[in-house]
Amino acid sequence: MSTGERRVCVITGAGGRLGSAFCQAHARDYDIVAVCRTRVPAAPSQHESFIDPLDPGADVNPGRVFLVHADLEQPGQVEHVVDLVLARHGRVDLLVNNAAYSAWHPSGLVDGDAAMDDMARHFAVNVELPLRLAARFAQRFWTSRALENRAVNRNVVNVSSLAGRGVFPGGQGVYAASKAAQDHLTRHMAREFDSFGVRVNGLAPNAFPSIVPTETVVEGVVKLDMAPVTGKILTLDAERPQAGGSTAPADS
Predict the structure, then answer these.
(1) Which CATH superfamily is 7-243 part of?
(2) Residue among 204, 90, 185 nearest 137 (CA)
(3) DSSP string covering 130-194, please?
């Protein structure tokens, strides 16, 4: 059970580059439930502690994440994660939908069936999964606590990509289409979730760490958690981070 001193954060895709960096940077700031399928974040957890070989007695584990192994593409696994989070912490204040699927098709959309065969999984993981997890937390916890949600500033951050906002080379068509759909779903979620006081925003970085530092993307998640905005997509590019936002769900 959370002590209430720190916000309870659930992050999917926790073993990936962004998830691991978030856990490393903010394990002492949040009570983090790190959801991963295979890879685990490089952070202390209930299964692993770090030791300084030069000073074995030093405390190098200032915060531990609670690690949950789950394949969210499998039936019932989303609901299992929701059950575990609420049983352990009794609440959720921040949901970071970071798990994603990405397969590029450099030969093109019509050179064979590879792009078409990958489409269903792209939309299942990048569009349906963020909605399903947020909806289950809403049904199980948020919808009956509108005043509390607003007071605590609870919210959802859907991690998208700059690919969903433009046309880029390299065979990104299907992936980009799924991220564009995710962005628009984020806006619709913001409008509907506002009825029970939960904000929903998206984070759309350029490629990281090659163009945007991973640390910048991590702090983008925190920025959206602390800000009052809802229904907006925060884009992060090498030269000009942009943060459109309002205190009410937006139409566009």
Answers:
(1) NAD(P)-binding Rossmann-like Domain (3.40.50.720)
(2) 90
(3) HHHHHHHHIIIIITT-HHHHHHHT-EEEEE--GGGGS--TTT-HHHHHHHHHHHHHHHHHHHHHG
Hey, which residues does 68 pair with through a beta bridge?
35
3-class secondary-structure state, position 97: strand
Residues 6+ apart with CB under 8 A from 228: 153, 199, 245, 247
Query: What is the C-alpha to C-alpha distance for residues 8 and 92, in angstroms, rounded to an integer?
Result: 5
Q: What is the pLDDT of residues 194-226, one digit of tens each?
A: 999 999 999 999 999 999 999 999 999 999 999
Residue carrying the six token digits 């046309």:
167
The tokens 């564009």 sit on which residue? 180
Q: What distance lies between CA 134 and its chain's CA centroid? A: 11
Query: Which among 21, 25, 23, 28 is positioned nearest to 6, based on CA atoms?
Result: 28
Q: Where are the domains of the chain?
A: 7-243
Q: How confident is the model over 29-55, as pLDDT tens digits?
A: 999 999 999 888 877 766 565 554 555
The pTM score is 0.87
Distances (CA, A) of 67 to 61, 223, 232: 15, 24, 30
